[in-house]
Amino acid sequence: MDPSRSFIKDVKRIIIKVGTAVVTRADGRLALGRLGALCEQVKELNYSGFEVILVTSGAVGVGRQRLRFRKLVNSSFADLQKPQVELDGKACAAVGQSGLMALYDALFSQLDVTSSQLLVTDSDFKDPNFRMQLCQTVKSLLALKVIPVFNENDAISTRRAPYEDSSGIFWDNDSLAALLALELKADLLVLLSDVEGLYSGPPGEPHSKLIHTYVKERHHGEITFGDKSRVGRGGMTAKVKAAVYAAYAGTPVVITSGFTTDSIIKVVQGERVGTLFHQDASKWALPKEVSARCMAVSARECSRRLQRLSSEERKKILLDIANALEANEKLIRIENEADVSAAQQAGYEKSLISRLTLKPGKISCLANSIRVLADMEDPICRVLKRTELADGLILEKTSCPLGVLLIVFESRPDALVQIASLAVRSGNGLLLKGGKEAMRSNAILHKVITGAIPDVVGEKLIGLVTSRDEIPDLLKLEDVIDLVIPRGSNKLVTQIKESTKIPVLGHADGICHVYIDKSADIKMAKRIVLDAKTDYPAACNAMETLLVHKDLLKTEGLNDLLTELKNEGVALYGGSIVSLEYGISEAPSFHHEYNSMACTIEVVDDIHGAIDHIHQYGSAHTDCIVAEDLAAAEIFLHQVDSAAVFHNASTRFCDGARFGLGAEVGISTSRIHARGPVGVEGLLTTRWILRGNGQVVDGDKGVVYTHRNLPLYFFSKEKRSILPVGDITETIPDEVADIAILEEPEHLTWYHHGRRWKTKFRKVIGVVHTNYLEYVKREKNGQIQAFLLKYVNSWVIQIYCHKVVRLSAATQDLPRSIICNVHGVNPKFFEVGQMKHGLKVEGGQKAFSKGSYFIGKMVWSKAYTELLQLLSQHQNELSDLRVDLYGNGEDFDDIQKSFSKLTLGVRIYPGRDHVDSLFHDYKVFINPSTTDVVCTTTAEALAMGKIVICANHPSNEFFRQFPNCHMYNTSNEFVQLTLRALVEEPLPLTDDLRHALSWEAATERFVEAAELNEVIREKTLLSPKPSMQMPSDDWRKSVEEASAFLHNTISGIEVARCAFGAIPETLQPDEQLCKELGLDFAEHKMFFRH
């Protein structure tokens, strides 16, 4: 019983008011089904000892229907051509009263209940003697178990017309019911409506929510009423007015739906249905009034914050969840054991208790599955397809989260862990509702998991619904919940599908079959059948029906199999043939899911008989054939219409973890969106992204649609570099191959086996960002590797590049290179800087409220080693320093642990985009790198108006011109400059310095450094493309061509490629990649063979 309905237990006398909208259908005819259900509920209450009084509307509607028919019968054709006059309401009431009461009398008589009719008018209640006599008459009727049925006598009412006059002691049947509740001293008034109760707005509007308990002080001014009743006098407005009148006079009122068959019974049982009006409601704490919508909205907001995180950040959240589960395993086991004990005492079925139990090792298994999920490829924002719609108009189809998921599951607390981890990986918000039998287990698992979610996302990303009463509300929130996934019984899934407009994904039954063909290896069949049934009989992928070819009947192999099943404790039920042949009980139905140590066995004529049986009685979940006849197996695999179809393998393999999905949110037998075990992929949808440069449709004038498929390039994740598969120069037509810009060319060209870049393009420019030699030196045998790498890099650059632009002198000195910083800053950073300067100048406000920070990939070699050394050496001098570090990477945990040992205030957070508003208020950016070019973040910090502290190092030479950039040579200078920066104010950027950081200036520097103006001039003059830009020296030319030939030969040998670190089988694109690159796979295959 709901706490707010506790007074129900003392209720004895109930008045039920039935509105015209409940009594009649939309066409005006009587709703016999609803009236029948009403009378059955009244009978049940009457037999249970309640005193029930009925107030009914509908007489006018019934009479109008009859008189319209009579008028039509008696009208001539000429009469029908005339304008039709509305029938007199009083006449309608007179005709309808007898018909309505006759119907009540007939329905109650069928239920062995006696009813009585009492017609009253407004003027009757003005007489005190009438009121006294009324109370005595009703008392006598109730003592005899007779149901008094009240109605206003509209036929002789002194009102001007029904539905028009609202004057008097009562003005409609709602107010009559309220008046009778007080006169007859009722304990409860139930007002039946055509909606479930009082909503905050018109029920049809998506943001309207059901108000479970009406508090006059809170709700009176907030509610927006919709249209009045289609047939009654005032609709919900009249009901609320009557309910407030009765409730505040001492009789509690519930407004609920008259369209459901058990709403009155639920009210009397104290369930939280409809809207309650109570004079003490304002004194109650009602925290759940808006919980359903608030939970859903909060989950959506958190999911959007989760989507903004990088893949590494989401991965770290999953790893933290896995670690938290293992760290709290003892506490989780205690709570789960309490649930199991309570379930056993309550007499739950063994199959449910089995699903409820978290067996030893289960937590570790769940944690490991989460780690597998974390290591999978990031599913969000993957480009699935790229299409050129027209020149310069590129369309991308990308993956994105669904939004907010509602998962309703029974018994299995491990499902909570799997679903929560999938939601985090896929960027979805999540609402969870578990069974009451797993309440403690779910609560502790939810607490552990949400505790591992960082504040930057919010623990409300995953909400746990604790009351079953909130489920009906959640199922109505199609505007904020995107998918419902029920996991449980057939009844649960069916109820949810019938109760919501939100898409539902799942399966109602798991009736899995194993068919043993006449060609089967019987020993193999025994292993498969025993595993499919006994490994975990409560699972939805356990075998429920064993089908056997007729030729195996009464064979030794089948006899042994049935004996072994019995020995394992499996109860056997048969079809008509098997039950007769083996003397076992006949199965109640072939469409039956046991979820226990029991199964059905039937004989079929052949493979087609097995397929027909599965289609007729199965649930399209998982079905298996055991056969050595490969032709028969192929027929089965391709003709059985189930989510998963197996050959010579147990049905128990149908599982997200076993399929390599990491985890599963459930198994779907639907044919739309996702089917079978649903992992991350099933929780995603797609988003279309179109990139243009000012194109307009304008009736498609001048638009030439190309609809050309563009390649999706595949890169080496293992090498963390940009190593494409195959020869990508083939995808670029010769006539447009003018200039090639190779990012990190010393790596891009290592494995390039194809046409030489310098032959293909007029000009090939390499852009070198980083000195990888420094990183290699830090590895084992690094000095030797760096020595070799230095010459390999120089060799391939000499072969493939006309010019190399090095971003700083810190990079490797390569042939034909020039040092030039060609980084530009996004205009958003300048906007931040201008905003900060404006605060200081115009308002005199403090522009920066935070101290110092660093942002960069969490790898020791990316400046964290230098920063740790600087801070640890000078902890005393920098005792007041607070530094916030932001980043993600493989050294995150190690870096966090090392910095935590310092006495300084160093805080470490997951990485964020540098333009994030989180960084706007920091005044000092510290960049201590002496091995890498971290110039992008330095430039961005300067653009935002911050002070930068960096090492006097060649990589930072470009920034020497900026007054806000302070460079140190020693650790003591670092301390002095940092402390000074924290107390001084940064200087505003001049226009020249701002331009120097811009994309425009960076482009100008790049064009000049790369000497591209000459190529652009040649293109304008339509000069022929040179075959190769080489020195005039013939000897040097010959050496370079020989080197190119040698490199091409080596890069074409698979063994040699792999020895230098190439991904195996990446010499030529496979069929899928050829398709995406627009290349002829057959032609490539033939070429590669030759």
Task: Please describe the structure with a list of short key phrases separated by commas or semicolons.
single chain; 8-stranded mixed β-sheet; globular
Taking the alpha carbons of the first and last residues, their distance comes to: 80 Å
Secondary-structure content class:
alpha/beta
Residue-averaged pLDDT = 83
The residue ranges in which pLDDT falls below 50 over 5 or more consecutive positions are 161-166, 227-233, 286-290, 713-724, 1021-1032, 1086-1090
Shape: globular
**What's the main sheet like?**
8 strands, mixed
Number of E-type strands = 34
The helix count comes to 40
Strand content: 15-25%
- Taking all Cα atoms into account, the compactness measure Rg is 39 Å
Strand order of the largest sheet: 3-4-2-1-5-7-8-6
- Name the helicity range: 40-55%
Describe the structure.
- The protein is built from 40 helices and 34 strands.
- By secondary structure, it is of the alpha/beta class.
- The protein has an 8-stranded mixed beta sheet with strand order 3-4-2-1-5-7-8-6, with helices on both faces. Strands 17-18-16-15-19-20 form a 6-stranded parallel beta sheet, sandwiched between helices.
- Strand 11, helix 16 and strand 12 form a beta-alpha-beta unit.
- The chain starts with 12 loop residues before the first strand and ends with a helix.
Brief digest:
The chain is of the alpha/beta class and 1090 residues long.
